[in-house]
Design a protein that fits this description.
By secondary structure, this protein is an all-alpha fold. It has one domain (40-257). The chain has helices at 2-35, 41-53, 56-78, 87-125, 128-134, 139-176, 182-192, 195-221, 226-257. It is globular.
């Protein structure tokens, strides 16, 4: 029984290493094309609109209710220690450092990453990508690079908006339900917030934007097997992007705040 288990474990390890190598090679090639002109500006603007503007409702709703729940939960815990005055501080730091970028990244991964994988995967199985090559258009330059550039540029703006909306949600609960003085709540929020808190969240957002678009493009570009393959690529894009977001979130936090 031991030999088959070890064999299966070895196969899984080799498959994982092969996938990591394939994704790394794909990422290097995509970055190289993203840094070299020419640029398809219309494609970049279209992807920025798709990633940023059309994702704003779901990200905004997630952020405002997260801020509201965070204020309520903080009050429940801090009331035991008569430390209710720290609620604005906890809300703003939690949102800007962690919850804003992570939740926005996960929402965008579910919406945009799946859409990218489905679109590019459909183009792959219907041989439209091969047609681009025939027409002397580099698929990486036309399909992948604009999405990576748009993700890196747009997600920090989306996270900044989500931070503001989330803090607003905490303010509404703090002032109208927990009976905070509105001026005191805002003053505590502004005084406690530091540049590093916001900056670290925006760096995370840029990295998450790259990871989301990379996974969507990779799984769509390498999909095969018709409609079933496109469905699998869509699922894999969302799952892999979500795992990478949570993984890189730890390492970026370690880099910024570890002492």
């Amino acid at each position: 029984m031991t030999v088959p288990v070890v064999t299966q474990l070895g196969r899984m390890t080799l498959a994982l290493l092969a996938m990591i190598g394939a994704v790394t090679s794909f990422a290097v090639r995509a970055i190289r094309h993203g840094l070299q002109p020419p640029y398809y500006r219309q494609q970049i603007l279209r992807q920025m609109l798709e990633i940023g503007y059309y994702s704003l409702p779901v990200v905004g709703l997630t952020a405002i209710f997260t801020g509201m729940v965070l204020a309520l939960q903080s009050h429940t815990g801090f009331a035991r220690f008569s430390a209710e005055s720290a609620i604005p501080n906890v809300v703003v730091v939690s949102l800007t450092r962690e919850l804003g970028p992570v939740l926005a990244g996960l929402m965008v991964a579910g919406r945009v990453g799946a859409a990218m994988a489905a679109e590019i995967g459909t183009m792959r199985v219907t041989e439209q990508i091969d047609a681009l090559t025939t027409l002397s258009t580099d698929p990486f330059k036309y399909l992948v690079a604009p999405r990576l550039i748009a993700g890196i540029l747009t997600l920090p703006v989306l996270v900044l908006v989500a931070d503001i909306i989330g803090v607003l949600g905490g303010y509404l609960v703090g002032v109208y339900k927990l009976d905070f003085n509105d001026a005191t709540y805002l003053r505590n929020t502004v005084d406690f917030l530091q540049f590093q808190d916001v900056f670290s969240g925006l760096v995370k957002a840029a990295v998450f934007g790259f990871l989301i678009t990379l996974m969507g493009c990779y799984h769509g570009y390498t999909s095969k097997g018709g409609a079933q393959g496109v469905g699998a690529a869509t699922t894999n894009a969302v799952v892999s992007a979500s795992i990478l977001i949570l993984t890189f979130n730890y390492f970026i936090t370690e880099a910024f705040f570890a002492r």
